[in-house]
Specification:
The chain is mainly α and 439 residues long. Helix content is 84%, strand content 0%.
Amino acid sequence: MNYRRKANITLAVVFLFFLGSALLEHFNPVNFGVRLMSFVSEAALVGGIADWFAVTAIFKKPLGWSYHTALIPRNREKVIEAVASIVQTELLNMNLIRKKIEGIPFIGGILLSVEKAGGSIYLTDMILVYLRRYAEKQDPVKLAEKLAVFIRSAVKTWNLTPRIQGLSEWALKQGYIDLGLDRLAEGLWDKAADGETRQSILRYLEEIKEEKVSNGGSIFRTLMGFVEMSDGLNLDEAVDALQVELLLTLRKFRDPLDPLRSSLKDILLNRVEELELDTQFSAQIEQWKEDVLNDALLNRFLESVLGEALQVALSPSTPTDPNALHRAIHPCVEKYWLSLQHNSELQERINSFLVDTFCRVIQNEHDLIGSMVRETLAAYTDQDLNQFIEEKAGNDLQWIRINGSMIGGVVGLILFLFLDFVYPYFGLVFMNSLTYLSR
């Protein structure tokens, strides 16, 4: 049973009670109980009818009475604006929305969902899907042309000398120079130990001997002949000795503390520090840069590289047989995925970023809440609007009608008792006072 029906039944009962008590009062006008019932029922009926009129006047014209009735249809625009304003500024204000959003663990839900889907493998597959979609739409020739134009416009303003100097300093700090010197020493040692090097040394000594003999005159040639005959000058032994000495020197060069190696390293360090001030080196670098940028080989190189990259991206990949791109990307994705899972500070920053992003979007579109409420209510007819409000506050309004009859009856009881038991004594006292004062 709805409250409207309860209120109507209550009013009907009060009306019947009033009719019954009025009939009894007609036959027993002096009976105290009958008079009490009649007075109370009359007051309850008046209260019920008054509240029925007031509640009904909110929605329509009761009994056709048009003076200050049908308040909602008559103030339709004000009601719609008030409801929209309440929803937008009070019920769904930005402070309340932000508090609710801040309590949502976005990053926790994202991490859990991704982990259930497969973790780093799932992320790698998703990246490959987007890369494959992008690769399918690309033409290597056009893409190479665009990239070449971008590189030429961007690199043309670069000063490469400080970058080369910085790269050299970084290589020194990382120990790559020592590693390069180690490999240089190994390569030189291998080269010095082979027979071709021995033959080169022998040819060099023979050239020196021939030069000295040809420039020394007949006496020097005669002396040289006696020396060779007595085995005082043996070029083979000299070559062997020089080659052994060279090998021993290169073996020492492998030692990081070797003076020759330290000296060479110091020379490299000093040279790196002087690169930025070396105008000749800077000019050579700039000329090399211009030659590379203006060479058509750059477009062909980029086209070749991009073509291979696109083919790799489009090649099939399965969990049992991942393609080259998957194998290249997955270690990086797995590294960062594990780092994110164990980095609570990073998770908090990401969650804060998501909260701020959502709040900014909602802040920018917050007026849409009021607009949506206005548009929705504006589409309602007067009857629909009345029904909408009755559904939200109708029960309380019907209780007003029920309370009207109850309060009217209580007030009628109090007035009846006052008029029957209190008022006569007040009237007697009042009349006696007037009589006393008139004397």
